[in-house]
Design a protein that fits this description.
By secondary structure, this protein is α+β, with helices and mostly antiparallel strands. It has two domains: 36 residues; 32 residues. It has four helices and three strands, in the order βααββαα. A three-stranded mixed beta sheet has the order 1-2-3. Strand 2 and strand 3 form a beta hairpin. The mean pLDDT is 90.
């Protein structure tokens, strides 16, 4: 494991992040602790619950409402195509 000080890591942070993503063990020494850099998977299934306290059923209702509003606005000519 490569252990760096905050000053060492700050000067080449992108480099060390890339090494961590590639699977190398990279860590920082911070106030007597070792803190490791590791990639993590993000699971969006529970994002609404964690961030907003919304259950799966509430999210289904919100999606249905958004779809109804979109269809209504499309009928009224308020929807414009997205062109990047």
């Amino acid at each position: 494991m490569k252990t760096l000080s905050i000053a060492q890591g700050r000067t080449r942070l992108g480099h060390w992040l890339k090494k961590a993503v590639e699977g190398q063990d990279i860590a920082f020494a911070f106030e007597g602790h070792v803190v490791a850099l590791r990639p993590v998977k993000i699971y969006s299934e529970d994002y609404a619950l964690r961030e907003y306290g919304a259950t799966s059923g509430e999210m289904d209702q919100a999606l249905a409402k958004a779809e109804r509003e979109w269809k209504r606005d499309a009928r009224r000519g308020k929807v414009k195509p997205f062109t990047p």
